[in-house]
């Protein structure tokens, strides 16, 4: 029983990590596209 509950806890933690990584990836993508936009708008050339 102890092993089972530990396993499920570990799975839950992994799920949360995956969610957080997804969120970070989305933020990263948004930031990248924003920077690209800024670059093209305010290019020094």
UniProtKB/TrEMBL annotation:
<protein>
    <submittedName>
        <fullName>Uncharacterized protein</fullName>
    </submittedName>
</protein>
